[in-house]
Specification:
Layout (H helix, E strand, L loop, with lengths): L1 E8 L14 E7 L8 E6 L3 E6 L4 E5 L12 E6 L8 E6 L3 E6 L4 E5 L16 E6 L9 E6 L3 E6 L4 E6 L14 E7 L8 E6 L3 E6 L4 E5 L14 E6 L8 E6 L3 E6 L4 E5 L14 E6 L10 E4 L3 E6 L4 E6 L14 E6 L4 E2 L24 E9 L2 E7 L24 H8 L9 H12 L1 H5 L21 H12 L5 H17 L12 H4 L12 H14 L2 H12 L3 H20 L6 H27 L14 H4 L2 H11 L17 H30 L12 E5 L4 H9 L11 E5 L9 H14 L7 E4 L4 E4 L7 H16 L10 H7 L6 H7 L1 H12 L4 H5 L4 E6 L2 E6 L14 H13 L4 H15 L9 H9 L6 H7 L1 E2 L8 H12 L2 H12 L15 E5 L8 E3 L4 E5 L4 H14 L7
Parallel strand pairs: 27-28, 30-31, 36-37, 37-39
Antiparallel strand pairs: 1-2, 1-29, 3-4, 4-5, 5-6, 7-8, 8-9, 9-10, 11-12, 12-13, 13-14, 15-16, 16-17, 17-18, 19-20, 20-21, 21-22, 23-24, 24-25, 25-26, 28-29, 32-33, 34-35, 38-39
Helix pairs in contact: 2-5, 5-7, 7-10, 8-10, 9-10, 12-13, 16-22, 17-23, 18-19, 25-27, 26-27
Length: 1058
């Protein structure tokens, strides 16, 4: 058995008690007429009440001054509203003197007072509108899911997330800014809220709220008591974010005349606004300008809240209690008297907990029945408005659960792209026409930013409090849903999605979204299978990209932050989408007309700009994916990148046609090497042209010495370093751009590359010798860094810089084990913690522990801003900042300490040495071509990388003498090589080439030569590292070959710093 109870003001018959002559009911009384009837909803106006039943019928009672009962006369008993005899009412809302009702066919009706256009009928009037009339502009397709009424205004929410408003705007309660008439007579869409996934709307006397699915609250309208919760008393003409409760996990909002109430996920209650009658429950009569938690309800899990004009109700079902506070003059608190209460009091009645414990062990706290003579009831729903209250209850034996306002009702919430929608799509047969329901759902969800932004939210309410750090999206759910759509047998599904995205969604996306929650779709949509097909680049993918590019700075920063937190596979998917577009456009046949050319140019521009944004995020986010994931391998085959580089240099990278050199991250190693050599050729050609001009002039002017078109160094093996310094000092900047040739004094050999390579090896061995003390060696990382305590002249560091530059320009890799920090500094990029981790892993580990420590940092670590370094066996204390010895490291300044430490190691302490090195490097590798490189790429140009392809090494090997590919010795040699471990193969590479790393162009650039040698199988293989030449005895036995080869490899040494 169900029952309805009511209490509060009854002077106009608004409680529906009929013959009672009482002006008020001070405690709950049963409304007998609805005993055993199932209630859909109850809504209260100022002096009237509407009651909708589950069977679709609508009843009204109370004052009929403005026709608000939907009939001719007032009524003290609930009477049927006859206008809905042919339709079933599912949704109702009452204003002070007007009503809105929505039927099961999604038709919207209004009646009652229309003095300010609150009925939305086209013009305001002072007539009594007793007959519910259909509201034009709303149909089954627009699907109204919620309505809220203020005193004289109306707010309507549709299933696509649109908010419509009409009525009085005297305090800004419509959220429409300045309206000349101060009202709207027809419902108008609140466009400033477009894109937000609205979960609930609410209206007070002259103020309004919208609450998103993730608990973000927007308020607007009258604020003279702080009822908007914004910390002041200024009215708001537009929706304004309530920042103070953004992270409070708000799930429901309701409003009184001048106060507001919030319900949180945990069951907490916040109130704010007018408090003069105690309606805020804070044990005071003060107004509150900011939401404040009701202290006396803490510890109780509230699941429902309701507000009357100047009072508040809260339900705690596990205790079977309703608490009330505020104005009590009409008995609306249900406490048995008419006193006001400024803190929660219990509403009297035969209520029992929603969950009843069987047996005698039930305590008073879990089951309390105030009236032992009455039958017990479980409270299902509470309602309030005006000065009256209602309660829908059921007998415990019906096992009806109390409604939980923190949970969304499926039929009254935003449409999202969920399993129900997709399963209906998948169920459509391959050749069938799409059912109207499927078409309508697809069109609504893919045309509405709100629907998409409300889709795929993290479960367990982890999406609540969305922010830059929490986008709230379940990417696995998104991928699963889109995969289901992709697999749908009927192709019309995809056609419908494409048409809707192209024609409706993309043109509607705003430049300045109203909130973070309005930009989730930028993360979600790329998972749609449509984005996997570059055929849609001009209609969907690139217009979508343009929307991202066009976003204002605030939204852009949030998108970048969210991108930086994506999983590698999700981030890579974004990159792949736009790389595919670039390749697709470049592979298109010749354009037929100018329009097609413009479309392609636009597509290329947008795709490259999105890739640039993604690359920037990736580069600043600790490499979410490897930097080479951005390479577009096909580019060098589809674009004349040398011409592109020349044009880029000449245009200085500004304006005009798209130049790929403005997006160097898409160039692979081969392309960048080609560009580097293009630049070298340009520089060398200028130098050579100048040489020839001078040589030609020398024919007529004997005083000008002819100049060599190569950079020639004459080196004595006994004084490699000094000879190099002396000769390089005489060269001008252009000389360094010339091809390097090295001649060893007293030797006949012509330098075809081998002598040059040997020169680099000899020079490095000498410079890296500890006797110079130029570099500090770090045992744990086996790397070197500048020694700030060296006595060497800066010219030595200048020489190393020149050496690195010459190695790059002459396509020679050298064994110089600097960390990547060096190359970052050369490219003017900041050095960070990861760089310290590469050079000094143990120190970095300690720093990370310092960052992660949660207790008292000062007590645990006992650090100050001082670093201790070894200075020729003596400890030297160096202050990282002025007066650092007297400044302790604390939790507040530990980031500053670590930044200062890193700055000292990589910058301040070695400034002199690095600047000399940098100057030498720029002598050779100056210019804009360096801007094209990533630090790791520049490092690979100097020292090579470890992208081994052992099959390629075997494939490109060449043989001399009687050796050939199928010679027995060669065959068993490669069999042995294939069976070697990776470590052994790397040692073989070091043994044969002088380095265990390979050029940036890959293994194909490591061409090795194998020639036979006499002496028999007892001899070891011999390597000529300058020429990548292996002298391999004519082994016939595989085991013998393995033994001798590994012996030779293991006994070899590189030219590193020891």
């Amino acid at each position: 058995m169900t029952a309805v109870f009511c209490w509060g003001g009854a002077s106009q018959g608004q409680l529906g008690l009929g013959g009672s002559e009482e002006q008020k009911a001070v405690q709950p009384q049963q409304l007998e007429v609805f005993q055993g009837r199932e209630i859909q909803q109850i809504s209260c106006g100022l002096e009237h009440t509407l009651i909708a039943l589950k069977d679709g019928s609508l009843y009204s009672c109370g004052s009929n001054t403005y026709g608000q009962l939907g009939k001719e006369k007032s009524s003290g008993k609930p009477e049927l509203v006859g206008a809905f005899e042919t339709g079933m009412v599912r949704l109702i809302a009452c204003g002070a003197y007007h009503n809105i009702a929505v039927t099961d066919s999604k038709q919207v009706y209004s009646w009652g007072q229309n003095s300010h256009g609150q009925l939305g009928r086209g013009e305001a009037d002072k007539n009594f509108n007793r007959v519910p009339r259909l509201l034009k502009g709303f149909s089954a397709s627009s699907c109204v899911i919620q309505v809220a009424c203020g005193d004289k205004h109306t707010v309507i929410l549709t299933r696509d997330g649109s908010i419509f408003v009409c009525g009085d705007h005297s305090h800004g309660q419509l959220g429409m800014g300045n309206l000349p008439q101060g009202r709207l007579d027809c419902p108008v869409k609140l466009k400033c809220m477009l894109g937000l996934p609205i979960g609930q709307i609410a209206a007070g006397g002259h103020h309004s709220f919208a609450l998103t699915l993730s608990g973000t609250l927007f308020g607007w309208g009258k604020n003279n008591f702080g009822q908007l919760g914004l910390g002041d008393e200024k009215d708001r003409l537009f929706p304004t974010l309530a920042k103070s409760v953004r992270n409070q996990k708000i799930k429901y909002v309701c409003c009184g005349e001048d106060h507001s109430v919030l319900l949180t996920q945990e069951g907490g209650v916040f109130t704010f606004g007018a408090g003069s009658h105690g309606q805020l429950g804070h044990n005071s009569l003060n107004n509150e300008l900011l939401p404040r938690k009701v202290f006396e309800l803490m510890g109780s899990e509230v699941t429902q809240i309701a507000s009357g004009r100047r009072h508040t109700l809260a339900l705690v079902p596990l205790r079977g209690r309703v608490y009330s506070f505020g104005l009590g003059a009409s008995g609306q608190l249900g406490t048995g008297n008419t006193s006001n209460c400024n803190s929660p009091s219990t509403v009297k009645g035969p209520w029992v907990p929603a969950v009843v414990t069987n047996g005698p062990s039930s305590s008073d706290s879990s089951m309390e029945v105030d009236d032992t003579k009455s039958e017990a009831y479980v409270i299902r729903t509470i309602y309030s408005g005006g000065d009256q209250c209602f309660m829908y209850t059921a007998k415990p034996d019906l096992h009806m659960r109390a409604e939980d306002f923190r949970t969304q009702k499926p039929h009254y919430t935003l449409l999202t792209l969920n399993e129900d929608v997709v399963e209906r799509c998948v169920a459509v047969q391959k050749d069938a026409r799409l059912p109207l329901e499927v078409t309508a759902d697809l069109e609504m969800v893919f045309s509405s930013a709100s629907c998409l932004n409300g889709s795929f939210l993290l479960r367990d309410n982890r999406h609540l409090g969305s922010s830059r750090l929490n986008h709230g999206i379940d990417f696995d759910a998104a991928q699963e849903i889109f995969q289901m759509l992709k697999n749908a047998p009927n192709t019309l599904i995809s056609h419908q999605i494409c048409a809707t995205l192209e024609q409706k969604l993309l043109p509607s996306l705003p430049i300045s979204p109203p909130d973070i929650e309005a930009i989730r779709l930028y993360l979600v949509l790329p998972f749609c299978h449509i984005f996997e097909n570059p055929n849609f680049y001009s209609t969907i993918i690139c217009p979508f990209g343009q929307s991202i590019i066009s976003l204002d700075k605030v939204a852009t920063k949030v998108i970048d932050q969210w991108w930086s937190k994506l999983r590698s596979r999700d981030f890579k998917k974004l990159v792949t989408i736009y790389k595919q577009c670039v390749v697709f456009i470049l592979q298109e046949p010749h354009a037929k007309n100018e329009f097609e050319v413009l479309v392609r140019q636009k597509g290329l521009h947008v795709s490259m700009e999105i890739l640039r944004k993604l690359y920037t995020v990736n580069d600043g986010g600790g490499q979410i994916i490897p930097y080479d994931s951005f390479y577009i391998w096909e580019l060098k085959d589809k674009v004349d990148i040398r011409a592109d580089y020349v044009n880029w240099i000449q245009s200085k990278g500004s304006g005009g046609m798209l130049s790929f050199c403005n997006f160097p991250f898409v160039f692979d190693a081969q392309a960048k090497t080609l560009l580097l050599h293009t630049d070298a050729v340009m520089q060398m050609q200028l130098a050579v042209d100048e040489v020839h001009r001078r040589n030609f002039s020398s024919l007529f002017i004997p005083t000008i010495d002819p100049v060599n078109p190569c950079l020639v160094l004459y080196i004595d093996r006994r004084s490699v370093v000094q000879d190099t310094i002396n000769q390089l000092a005489k060269q001008g900047s252009t000389d360094f751009k010339k091809p390097l040739k090295v001649i060893m004094k007293g030797e006949e050999a012509v330098d075809a590359g081998g002598v040059r390579k040997e020169f680099f090896l000899l020079l490095l061995r000498e410079i890296l010798d500890p006797k110079y003390g130029m570099f500090r060696y770090y045992e744990e990382s086996r790397m070197i860094w500048f020694n700030n305590k060296t006595f060497e002249d800066p010219v030595m560091f200048f020489l190393i810089g020149v050496l690195c530059g010459l190695a790059i320009y002459n396509n020679t890799i050298i064994d110089l084990p600097f960390p990547q920090a060096l190359y970052k500094k050369l490219l003017k990029r900041p050095v960070v913690m990861d760089d310290l981790r590469e050079l000094m892993p143990d120190v970095a580990k300690n720093m990370q522990e310092l960052l992660d420590y949660e207790d008292d940092v000062q007590e645990a670590f006992c650090l100050n801003f001082v670093i201790v370094q070894d200075n020729f066996g003596e400890p030297e204390h160096i202050e990282l900042i002025p007066d650092g010895a007297n400044i302790d490291v604390t939790a507040e300044n530990r980031h500053q300490y670590i930044d200062a430490y890193i700055d000292h190691i990589f910058n301040k302490s070695v400034q002199t040495q690095f600047e000399a090195f940098h100057t030498g490097f720029l002598k050779v590798c100056g210019g804009r071509v360096m801007d094209l490189f990533h630090p790791a790429e520049l490092q690979a140009m100097v020292v090579g990388n470890e992208n081994y392809d052992w099959e390629e090494l075997e494939k490109t090997a060449e043989y001399k003498g009687e050796y050939w590919r199928n010679h027995h010795t060669i065959k068993i040699f490669w069999e042995v090589f294939r069976e070697m471990t990776v470590s052994q193969k790397k040692k073989f590479l070091l043994f044969l080439t002088g380095s265990d790393r390979i050029p940036i162009l890959g293994m194909k650039a490591v061409k090795i030569f194998i020639q036979p040698t006499g002496g028999g199988e007892d001899y070891l293989p011999v390597a000529h590292t300058c020429f990548n030449l292996l002298d391999l005895p004519k082994f016939t036995n595989k085991d013998k070959l393995r033994q001798k080869l590994l012996q030779a490899v293991e006994q070899s040494e590189g030219f590193g710093l020891v």
